[in-house]
Amino acid sequence: DQQVKQNSPSLSVQEGRISILNCDYTNSMFDYFLWYKKYPAEGPTFLISISSIKDKNEDGRFTVFLNKSAKHLSLHIVPSQPGDSAVYFCAATLTGANNLFFGTGTRLTVIP
Amino acid sequence: KAGVTQTPRYLIKTRGQQVTLSCSPISGHRSVSWYQQTPGQGLQFLFEYFSETQRNKGNFPGRFSGRQFSNSRSEMNVSTLELGDSALYLCASTSGLLATGDTQYFGPGTRLTVL
Fold first, then answer.
1. Looking at the complex, does the CB of residue B97 fall below 8 Å from at least one CB of chain A?
2. Chain B: residue nearest A31 by CA?
């Protein structure tokens, strides 16, 4: 039972344009969300997070938006760079817990 | 600060054997979580240890077990290996609780191949 879903397995974007990665979740008890970037044979690298009490969090080129009513979050990367090419995972967790529920990932390719 | 380290990085075992993987968290981090990544199931939570106690457990059979030592280092053990246990095993450390704003940092993983 996949509680966190990323319905787009892949996304291609031109360098300099905006990349938008989407994530949906089913468990309304999730209250903290994170985005990770992953290269093959490496561990995920933390990018940005957002608490359920916020609807937006920004860190440099990365912005995460949370729509609790729709149980949807998105990661915006502006401007996209070739070095952003990787698999992006969204993850969610519950209050008082450190176990992450991961989505299936979206492979982003930024074309120079 | 040194990151999360995992040993060994690669391991080849045969069915029926057992294996032990090791993880050293970031200095000062008391929570260690383990995850399994496979092409079919994605990234799945195995268990979390905090101050030498298992605090949370995922939906894996009892063949998967772990422990944490007083210096926060952790090991996970898989007994009676099956072909389906072939995966990338990831360890992650957290200072406190994620929902309070802490971050979970991952190690490079151990690639286990079961033949």
1. yes
2. B99
